[in-house]
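ENTRY TYPE: protein
CONTENTS: sequence, structure tokens:
***
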Amino acid sequence: MQDVKRKYVIPGDIVAEGNLRALVNVFRNGNSIVATRIGITESNNEGAKVIPLSGIYFPRANDIVIGKILDHSSLSWSVDINSSFAAHLPAQDIFGRDFSPAHDDMGLQLSTGDVIVARIAIFDRTRDPILTIQDKDLGKIPTGELLKISPTRVPRLIGKRGSMIQTIEQASSTRITIGQNGIIVVSGKDKDGVTLAINAIHIVEVEAHTSNLTQRIKQLLNVPESEIAGDDDSQTSNEDNETLSSGEKSISNNINSEMGVVNPNGSK
């Protein structure tokens, strides 16, 4: 196991010195690696980085996000995606090229307060993000409890190869849909199971930077002792370096026909 060194830093603090690689949220200044975010440093023989303690979501093309319908104009829906940017879902994305504001009732498809899972189709910083729900497993989410975590915590919630989120789902008998923007929907038939899953998610968010987190989550979920061994917290450093494409896969895998997404044509 690698020797991982951690400490709290603010922007401008020296994270490490020497020939280590500068990974994320840091930059090299001569022989020093300097922090650019408030967070916890991690340095090992792979390099040095800062894990942010919090952060707002900054959109990226092809990210999978969960959003809430705010309103609509004659041509598109405005969608809250937990960002400083308001996203837009074009009416043509649902109605097709023949969409006519005079003849097609947008309110029959999506109304204020509806929750959708969508992909960011276009975003180049010169205009607000454009969404699409035309890909597989995208569309309206009909049921579930909505909660929000810091987007920087999403990789830890997913876990290495989806281990953390699968553990929570299986132990609570729920389905958890994760947006890369930090919005999460927890669905399940059993109210106690949904509450248990939500509690576990909150603990992951608050204690994401701590060791033995997986073990504590399994104990909370009453996972048998024989399955608690083999904690993957030693892999936290690797998880934080992964791109959120793993989160995208988790989202698709966590949607089933009973509790999942409703396509624009009304099918599941």
Summary: The chain has three domains: 5-52, 64-141, 145-253. The two ends are 45 Å apart (CA to CA). The longest strand covers residues 64-72.
